[in-house]
Write a structure and sequence with these properties.
The protein has 372 residues and is an alpha/beta fold. The chain has a 6-stranded mixed β-sheet, with helices on both faces. A 4-stranded antiparallel β-sheet has the order 1-2-3-4, with helices on one face. Helix 3 packs parallel to helix 12 and helix 4 packs across helix 12.
């Protein structure tokens, strides 16, 4: 049917032939669209069927209503079909529901957000296990080859250093690793060579030592709080690269991790420590000043990364606003530092470039914004 042979009437959807047939008269046609489908139907002829324009309109509306009704019934049937479960599917849902209730216990008494957070933790712990298994292999390799490893954990307060250390060492053999977190030096230590109190904690063959803060206290914390003179700070900045190069040259595996937390996230974690009785012990007098001294810390951080990053002992920047992702990336960095036996290459060791970033990128970001 060629619509060029028809003309529109003044009623939407109704068309009539331009030329009347000698025997049948003019032809009336309905043409409309519904639910993205087009419908066309011959309604009849003016002579043959004695159809007037008014009757043609009635026929067209009846046809349109039938189409709409049929479509709606089909949709209801589809929805009912989708909603209808087979006995097997129903039994499966009941079984799954029973298992979930047994696992969750009296879950209705728990805060929904706390419960959601707890479930997420379970998934995260499972993912971490792949890397924790690899860390055990690494530890066994170091023991077997009599190699020594030092891992430095640096970063602002509440940047996630302690949490990362706990996850990294969770399943390690505690006979072959130590976590060192030194307090303020005593009078004897103040009169020693600066590195001396750290050296006495260095690993022996087959051992890993993890420093929760390290000699880099002298690069940031000590000069800001007046625990060292400007001259002592400058001497450290000039000597530390050579000191670390000597360690590496003598076979030490040295890994330097800097956990880079944003100012807003640090404040959120501080607020949580203040308000949570289980975390209040973490909040110290130094923490109270961290936000006010953010700019000063940024200046010292920038100088430290720029001057103490070297080929033999590079810094690895770990963005730590997301604790879980930062822990995964820290583990990857440690595991990628040694070609140990039995490495499972099915595990993803590729760095997440949004979390594990270069020193150059961190410095560039710090020049643009003081948020890190």
């Amino acid at each position: 049917m060629n619509l060029n042979d028809f003309e529109k009437t003044d009623y939407n959807g109704l068309y009539v032939s331009k030329v009347a047939h000698v025997t049948f008269g003019k032809k009336y046609v309905a043409r409309f669209q519904y639910d993205k489908k087009r419908y066309v139907k011959v309604l009849g002829y003016s002579k043959k069927d004695n159809i007037t324009k008014r009757e043609a309109i009635t026929l067209m509306n009846n046809y349109r209503d039938s189409i709409i009704s049929t479509q709606e019934e089909s949709q209801v049937e589809i929805e009912n079909k989708n909603q209808t479960l087979t006995n097997k599917e129903y039994e499966k849902l009941v079984s799954e529901n029973k298992i979930m209730k047994e696992l969750l216990g009296n879950y209705k008494s728990l805060d929904k957000e706390i419960m959601k957070h707890g479930i997420q933790k379970i998934y995260e712990l499972e993912e971490l296990k792949n890397y924790q298994i690899e860390l055990i292999k690494l530890q066994n390799y170091l023991e077997k080859e009599n190699k020594r490893m030092i891992i430095l954990f640096e970063g602002r307060d509440a940047s996630g250093k302690g949490g990362a250390i706990r996850r990294i060492t969770r399943y390690m053999n505690n006979k072959h690793y130590r976590v060192v977190a030194l307090g303020k030096p005593d009078d004897t230590q103040r009169n020693q060579w600066f590195f001396q109190r750290y050296i006495q904690h260095f690993p022996t063959g087959g051992e890993i030592v993890l420093f929760d803060r390290s000699w880099y206290n002298r690069a940031m914390v000590e000069p800001i709080f007046g625990f060292c003179t400007h001259e002592e700070h400058e001497i450290f900045m000039e000597d530390v690269v050579n000191f670390e190069q000597d360690l590496v040259r003598q076979g030490m595996i040295l890994i330097k991790l800097y956990f880079s937390v944003s100012k807003d996230e640090q404040k959120r974690r501080f607020d949580r420590r203040i308000n949570d009785p289980l975390r209040q012990w973490k909040f110290s007098e130094v923490d109270m000043q961290a936000q006010d001294l953010w700019g000063e810390f940024s200046e010292k951080k920038y100088e430290m990364l720029r001057r103490t990053n070297s080929r033999s002992a590079p810094w690895h920047i770990v963005r730590s606003d997301d604790k879980f992702l930062s822990r995964v990336e820290a583990m990857k960095i440690i595991l990628n530092s040694v070609d140990y036996d039995g490495k499972n290459y099915a595990v993803n060791f590729e760095p997440n470039e949004q979390i594990n970033i270069s020193v150059q990128r961190e410095l560039m970001q710090m020049r643009k914004s003081a948020n890190y």
